[in-house]
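Q: Got a minute? One more chain.
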Amino acid sequence: MSDAIHPSAIIDPRARLDAGVRVGAFSVIGPEVTLESGVEIGRECLVMGLSHVAHDCRLGDGVIVINYAGITGHCEVGDRATIGGLTGMVPFTRIGAYAYVGGMAKLTADVPPFVLVDGQPATARAINVIGLRRAGMNPTDRRALQDAFRILYRSGLAPARAVERIREEMPATEPVRLMLDFIAGATRHGIVKGALGSIEEPEEITG
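A: Always. Here it is, folded:
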């Protein structure tokens, strides 16, 4: 077995792994998978049946890609993000950590960390509160992200001005900082626009 393939990995003999592929511990690769040269699978990822990850993509740890989703070339998906089934995205799209992309979404712009998007084209609906609760994020940080989301997507400000206002008015919590840094590094597509409606989850005072 190659040094680049961990001995605990389970690889179906019918899978095709090109030279230079790296497979981490406890990975499971099924019979119809093709991994081209230079591919390395992130830890604890789940890439479901008939989904597609194209060339030069980067998937963080704990990413879930649901059936029939299509990730095109040069895309980046942050840690613990979830990509809904039948989702499609244009090349060079970035999806931030802990973001949630609803099923059948059409992504034409970057999705900031912690944000839930849906639709065709996909628009920002809310902070992914349920996912952040499950991940153990504390209520104070979740509420701070919701406050930042409202400024970013409900104030009517352009993204650059909204970021300035968030930096001026809000405490610099680590999740908010990660969101703002992501937006500052947006690609040619910019970030997703806000939806007209809101499905924000209320936060309890404690918990």
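A: The CA atoms of residues 170 and 181 lie 15 Å apart.
Q: Perfect, thanks.
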